[in-house]
Amino acid sequence: MSELLGFCVVANVARETESGEGGLNVRYGLRHFSGGTKLWVLPPQWGDGGESLLVAGRHRGRRGGYVRMVVPRRHMENFRVRGVYNPALMRVLTAPGAPGGGVRFWEGREEAEKAVAWWSRRTLPAQNHELDYPRDLGEVSDPPPMELRKDGRLYHLAHFNAHRAVYSLLPPPVEAPGPPSGR
Question: pTM here?
Fold first, then answer.
């Protein structure tokens, strides 16, 4: 058996991914990775909170080794921690980034497990569009709550999709009672 070289977060490419305006373009997997492809995920390298992550995986149209590229985290699912035993995979994961720029690897299993716990939570960004500009209301669970209290205001869920939840200050309409049934 090979020697343990380190621990890494592993995820699969989502079977269906959305792109384009409003997420209306649905496809199987991604351009470079098929749905279900196992990706070895590095820790966040930039200050974006891990919205886009550097990954290594087997490319959809290429035979042989691993390729490394950036993938939006929303296109990944089934996060877990696994040991890295393959030296070729470890070389791809830890290869330098941009000229002179190093790539950060997981410090240990505990750091990777914390990321898995965080990334496995299903959340959506919450917004309010009633003002002159969209207002960021933070993140909410998926599915989102019907009401959200923020900065002393009560917001009501207007609609949501795979990418965001939109809230309104106006309460939902109340249906008028219908005519009595004539039985």
Answer: 0.66
Return the pLDDT at 8: 95
- The count of C-alpha atoms lying within 13 angstroms of the C-alpha of 176, restricted to the half-sphere facing its C-beta, is 2
CB 112 within 8 A of CB 119: no
Burial class from Cβ neighbours inside 10 Å (0-12, 13-18, 19+) for residue 38 reads: middle
Q: How far apart are CA 25 and CA 34, in angstroms?
A: 16
Measured over the CA atoms of residue 78, residue 93, residue 68 and residue 98, the dihedral's sign is: positive
Nearest 5°: phi and psi at 96? Answer: -60, 150
Question: What are the b/e assignments for 132-149, b being 16+ CB within 10 Å?
Answer: eeeeebeebeeebeeebe
Q: Is the pLDDT confidence value at 114 over 70?
A: yes
Among candidate residues 53, 97, 44, the one with its CA nearest the CA of residue 75: 53
Separation CA 119–CA 112 (nearest Å):
10
Taking the C-alpha atoms of residue 9 and residue 104, their distance in angstroms, rounded to an integer, is 13
Cα distance between residue 162 and residue 173, in whole Å = 24
